[in-house]
Amino acid sequence: xxxxxxxxxxxxxxxxxxxxxxxxxxxxxxxxxxxxxxxxxxxxxxxxxxxxxxxxxxxxxxxxxxxxxxxxxxxxxxxxxxxxxxxxxxxxxxxxxxxxxxxxxxxxxxxxxxxxxxxxxxxxxxxxxxxxxxxxxxxxxxxxxxxxxxxxxx
Length: 154
Description:
- The protein is an alpha+beta fold.
- It has two domains: 2-77, Beta-grasp domain (Ubiquitin-like (UB roll)), CATH 3.10.20.30; 84-147, Orthogonal Bundle (DNA polymerase, domain 1), CATH 1.10.150.
- It has helices at 21-28, 74-77, 84-92, 101-114, 120-126, 136-147, and strands at 2-6, 9-13, 47-50, 53-56, 70-72.
- The protein has a five-stranded mixed β-sheet, with helices on both faces.
- A hairpin with a 2-residue loop joins strand 1 (2-6) and strand 2 (9-13).
- The termini are far apart.
- One of its GO terms (molecular function) is metal ion binding.
- Residues 1-77 form the 2Fe-2S ferredoxin-type domain.
- InterPro entries: 2Fe-2S-bd, 2Fe-2S-bd_dom_sf, 2Fe-2S_ferredoxin-like_sf, 2Fe-2S_ferredoxin-type, 2Fe2S_fd_BS, Beta-grasp_dom_sf, Diverse_Oxidoreductases.
């Protein structure tokens, strides 16, 4: 049994201690916006926030968390898609296939929370998620738009 604080709700889940947080979110809590991509914390499709920090949930066992740590999934980022990153994604039509986008959005949102006006280089250094479609230029533009730094030198 584990007790987790997910999207503002403290929830008890019955799982083995070594179960990755990703599978608890998807299978136990039915929060399927967080995606499985690689299973080794490389691609970032599974990115959630843990106390505001972008965290890859596929390689983190549920035993690493307690009810005092605030876990936020893409479903908890904004109830009406009004987060500036989500609005920028819509305005610029950032995703192509969209599979990686919930993780990209979560990584970008964590970056902007920590660094509200990041340089291009900071964005490239901090948002390391993989996009098979190669929409990196649109991701960069979306983050810059949300930060109000479109066209800023890196």
